[in-house]
Design goal:
It is built from eight helices and no strands. With 178 residues, it is mainly alpha-helical. It is globular.
Length: 178
């Protein structure tokens, strides 16, 4: 990975971690709108640096701000959340390809589904182990989905368009950033 790509991944990771840290009340639990997840949409513009950045940023943010009351549960959340973000970022990057806005929108919806199913699947157990709250798996996934759509599609789509416009003609275009 080129040094420019590593720096870009670092910037995305730092932004993600800071957003989780300063907005923990919207970033965790069953009904969440993780504003930091809007950065997952950047994988459709910036490619692999954004894919890696949101994974690393999720790990750091979850370690620092998780409300689970146990370092082991925070580590569990950090590892699984990072893997989910890695999968969502990569899926969005691959789906969007060199396509236009429709493909990007499809990619962002796919990312929301990956995050909802992935996080919702293990969140059920975090809620049980940390708070003794036994939520049905389907409700756990359904609880994450609205916030994921808001953060990745509603916030992430215009963010990705703005970033794309700002780097048009720059060496950071998606095809060159990865």
């Amino acid at each position: 990975m080129r040094s420019r790509d590593m720096a870009l991944a670092g910037i995305v990771a730092a932004l993600y971690a800071v957003l989780v840290y300063v907005l923990p009340f919207t970033s965790f639990l069953l009904w969440q709108v993780r504003v930091a997840d809007a950065l997952i949409a950047l994988s459709t513009v910036l490619g692999y640096p954004a894919v890696l950045g949101v994974a690393v940023g999720c790990f750091i943010g979850n370690i620092l701000a998780a409300p689970w009351g146990s370092p082991a549960l925070s580590a569990f959340d950090a590892v699984l959340g990072s893997l989910v973000n890695l999968a969502a970022g990569y899926a969005g990057y691959r789906i969007s390809g060199k396509g236009g806005r429709r493909r990007r929108l499809a990619a962002l919806i796919a990312q929301s589904l990956v995050v909802s199913v992935g996080v919702g699947s293990y969140l059920k157990y975090l809620l049980l182990w940390a708070f003794g709250t036994d939520i049905p798996l389907l409700l756990s996934v359904a609880g994450v989905l609205p916030g994921s759509l808001i953060s990745i599609v509603v916030l992430g789509f215009p963010l990705s368009l703005a970033v794309e416009r700002s780097i048009r003609g720059s060496p950071l275009r998606a095809g060159q950033a990865s």
